[in-house]
Design goal:
heterodimer, A: 5-stranded mixed sheet, 4-stranded antiparallel sheet, 13 helices, globular, B: 342 residues, alpha+beta, 21% strand
């Protein structure tokens, strides 16, 4: 049985030490907010004992500290940072390190071994600070309330197999056997006759409201200017008018099934070999689109045909820039 | 005051006879949706957090994708521009919680006053709201903090109070008179005392966030340059969840979409102050490039600007932006801290 309150206490000691000794200038960690057991990523600097005392690690750390680094990249550039990560955040970090988006020497990584995540909304707000937060092989508990892993609302965690985390400091021990990627949901969809399969995906695309939360929360979606409906354009006062006027419009602003399909499938293609299956996009989607049904089409191909695991090691060559003459074709046939 | 008591089945029957399109919440949360209740379909019997879909009902009269005009260029160079027909068949929204009903008061104030917005005005003509008193709150509800309550009638044309197998129905405007005539026929009038007793059942205080928004508006101005804004928004990912799910946010973008060299259409879609490019100017200047400036706009628009202009809060207290925010940004907490109330 894991006791996350004592693991959090250990984490607070490590963070406090790093800050006090000047090993890092800032720590990015999860802290308790107002809506416990929900947590929020927070930037902590030396002297903020009030924030250090709120640092927490639990199965409710469902957000990504790497997304925080991505969103605050400019402000944190050149700073020595401590960052608290769980397994999938570490994988995402590896992807960004492979692509030279971040520098390893700028970071002190504190890795929390993760047995899976759970939706904070499934639990009542704990009363009092010392309510035990625990997990074992079967599920998660907060005080007297508990749920099974299968019901935790996080399908990608059930099939997470990553255990190659090599952080500078480590928190906790695995209390549950890691899963294996299974593609049951995908097999089910792909087994449908073409018409039905089309209906399935059309329904997913049709529901999209284009809030772009999936893109924005994604720890590895790191383009400054997204090909699809850029949230921010890389223009400066010196960009010539002609260039601005000729900015290509790959997908129109229109929200309907075909334009939404361009957005969602383009993202899935672009994520090939980069998606670490953290699943945060799917659980952020405000209209409940089963995004993994789309993303796993490319994830499955990357793993099954090319035997590549995204974000496994920071020294790996990124999937989409590697090429070998012996690469199989898209049907899996070798040459 | 016109209040009657009818058996619940009578509402279904009357709406069926009128042949109106009836929209009602189906399911809750991310899996929920406001959907069309077909002929003979069941109407919801109560409302609360368990019947509140993640997507608000504003899309019925303020669609996320609305064609404003279509154009074509003929072979001889003649240009044909067709305006869109914005009208829709008579539509009623049934069983909305007071937070969602009140959203139409806000949208009306923003889109009908002074210079009516033609698309919205045309749809609003044939659109009515039958609100329902709410019996269940969730941990993000804040209606009583923003001047509303689980039984407030703002934005509703008729208000329904479930009472056992009956519905107590209160008439508020003349917009749904055709329906009212059918309901009223032979129905028992409810005297004032009895009505108060029914309404009292829904008179619970929502205590998630204890503040009085009207008092808060007074102090919020001082928060304009607050250093807290950066802390508030440092983990914001700039997605559109808080605003697209907001029942009252109504900002939009207009873009031309060419089908080919000769044909295309002009389309209006939802836009949001949280997207960095929302305030981007052609010169590359962007007055709200930073996330704290964009979050400030959201908080102050909801709790200060709209209140100054229209006398009611733009936030209706549904709590969706707090509940669905991927990074736990809480507008109530933010507004209280900015206003120095916390």
């Amino acid at each position: 049985m894991r006791d996350y309150n004592s693991e959090s206490a250990a984490l607070r000691r490590i963070c406090s030490d790093l800050l006090e000794k000047g090993a890092v200038q800032y720590i990015v960690a999860w802290t308790e907010g107002e809506d416990r057991p929900r947590v929020r990523e927070t930037l902590i600097e030396k002297g903020r004992a009030d924030l250090v005392s709120r640092i927490v690690w639990s199965p409710f750390c469902t957000t990504s500290t790497i997304t925080y680094l991505k969103k605050n990249k400019a402000a944190l550039a050149g700073k020595k940072l401590g960052v608290v990560v769980k397994d999938c955040d570490f994988q995402a970090l590896n992807v960004l390190l492979q692509e030279h988006f971040l520098k390893r020497e700028d970071l002190v990584i504190i890795g929390a071994r993760c047995d899976g995540l759970a939706d904070a909304e499934l639990f009542p707000r704990p009363k009092g600070a010392d309510v035990p937060v625990t997990s074992d092989a079967t599920g998660v508990g907060v005080g007297h309330a508990s749920i099974r892993w299968e019901d935790s609302g996080f399908t990608t965690c059930l099939t997470c197999s990553y255990e190659h985390m090599k952080p500078d400091h480590v928190i906790g021990e695995y209390g549950r056997k890691k899963g294996k990627p299974d593609w049951k949901h995908l097999t089910r969809v792909l087994a449908l006759p073409p018409g039905k399969r089309r209906e399935h995906y059309a329904a997913l695309f049709d529901a999209c409201i284009r809030c772009y939360a999936c893109r924005e929360v994604c720890p590895v979606c790191a383009c400054v200017e997204c090909a699809i409906d850029p949230g921010e354009r890389a223009i400066t006062p010196r960009t010539p008018p002609g260039e601005k006027a000729c900015a290509p419009q790959w997908a129109s602003h229109e929200r309907h099934v075909s334009e939404n399909a361009v957005y969602l499938t383009t993202r899935a293609m672009h994520m090939a070999g980069r998606c670490v299956r953290c699943g945060w996009c799917e659980r952020s989607c405000p209209v409940g689109i089963a995004l993994m049904d789309i993303l796993d089409l490319s994830n499955d191909a990357v793993g099954r045909i090319y035997h590549y695991e995204a974000g496994k090691d920071p020294a790996d060559v990124p999937f989409l820039v590697s090429y070998a003459e012996t690469d199989p074709d898209d049907k899996g046939a070798s040459h | 005051m016109s209040v009657i008591r009818i058996p619940a089945a009578r509402m279904e029957k009357a709406l069926g006879e009128l042949g109106w399109r009836v929209m009602a919440p189906s399911g809750s949360g991310r899996r929920g949706k406001y959907i069309e209740v077909g002929a003979g379909g069941k109407l919801p019997l109560e409302c609360g957090d368990h019947t509140k879909p993640s997507a608000p009902p504003k899309g019925i009269v303020w669609p996320n994708n609305e064609v404003l005009l279509s154009y074509s260029l003929g072979l001889k160079g003649e240009i044909d521009v067709k305006g869109a027909d914005h009208s829709m068949g008579m539509t009623v929204l049934y069983g909305t919680p007071p937070c969602d009903s009140a959203s139409f008061r806000v949208l009306d104030a923003a889109l009908l006053k002074d210079m009516p917005e033609p698309g919205y005005a045309a749809k609003r003509e044939s659109f009515g709201v039958i609100g329902m008193a709410c019996s269940r709150q969730d941990r993000y509800c804040l209606c009583t903090s923003v001047g509303l309550s689980p039984h407030s009638t703002a934005g509703a044309d008729l208000m329904v109070y479930p009472d056992g197998d009956d519905l107590v129905v209160q008439k508020l405007t003349g917009r749904l008179d055709k329906l009212w005539a059918k309901l009223e026929h032979g129905a028992a009038r409810v005297p004032d005392d009895a009505f108060k007793a029914v309404a009292r059942k829904f008179d619970f205080k929502v205590e998630n966030f204890a503040f009085d928004a009207e008092k808060l508006a007074e102090t919020l101005r001082k928060g304009f340059d607050s250093p807290y804004l950066k802390e508030f928004s440092e983990r914001c990912v700039s997605c559109g969840i808080c605003t697209f799910l907001c029942p009252t946010c109504h900002c939009f973008d207009i873009a031309d979409s060419a089908a080919d060299e000769r044909n295309g259409r002009r389309v209006r879609t939802w836009d949001t102050c949280q997207f960095p490019e929302f305030t981007g100017e052609t010169s590359a200047h962007n007055p709200r490039r930073e996330r704290w400036a964009r979050q400030r706009q959201r908080v102050l628009h909801k709790f200060l600007y709209h209140f100054q202009n229209h006398g009611h809060m733009m936030c209706t207290g549904c709590g969706r932006c707090i509940r669905y925010c991927p990074v736990d940004i809480n507008i109530a907490e933010g507004a209280m801290k900015l206003g120095g109330m916390k």
